[in-house]
Amino acid sequence: MIKTKLLLLGECEQGKSTLANFLSETVAETGQPKTYKPTQGCRIVEFEVKDLKLKSGRKVSCEVEMWDVSGDPRFSGGWPAIAKDTSGIVFVYRTDTNLNAKEMEGWYNNFADKQGLADKQCVIFGNNIDGRTIEPNIPYKMNKIRCTVIDLNNDPEGVRSEFDKFLTDVCISTDEARDSEELKLIN
Ligand SMILES: Nc1nc2c(ncn2[C@@H]2O[C@H](COP(=O)(O)OP(=O)(O)OP(=O)(O)O)[C@@H](O)[C@H]2O)c(=O)[nH]1
Ligand SMILES: [Mg+2]
């Protein structure tokens, strides 16, 4: 069993909490609540994903601690504590509005950069809410991060499979880091 701490980051009202609820199965796949309830600071949801296939062919289960962070910068005092020991980050933006590249880069700098995360430990999810998909203006320093459009309403299984793909990459990184720590201890 691999344990992992993931963050959901992005501006307010992009659908981070909606995605967290879906992935943790807190809500049914259909009939999602449509009223917006801003996250206050941060909330943590926990769930398990089974049978992720690592490079070696080994199958693992992963216990995910997902930190659903408010997009409101007035909670920024808590960001250093939230960033600590993060294994992976999901950046979320809505595809029906222009992506604010400066804001997105700010999230990247404050969390991914500070924690020294590799590109593989990050993913950008474009949340397709109503069919409109404006080409995102991804910040230059994030252009090697996988960016994919998700559609919770019309393709929930696609969302789960994109998330599992990302989680597998995070587990591979965690596994490799653990192996190299073990080697260091032996030598
Ligand atoms: N129709 C539809 N509405 C969505 C979808 N994702 C999010 N929404 C709506 O968008 C609004 C904002 O969603 P949240 O998930 O609460 O936003 P958030 O990014 O967590 O916002 P903060 O907590 O303030 O940072 C809510 O009214 C949701 O119902 C979606 O896939 N489809
Ligand atoms: Mg929220």
From TrEMBL:
GO terms for molecular function: GTP binding. InterPro entries: P-loop_NTPase. It holds the Pfam family Roc. Keywords: GTP-binding, Nucleotide-binding. This is DgyrCDS9410. It comes from Dimorphilus gyrociliatus.
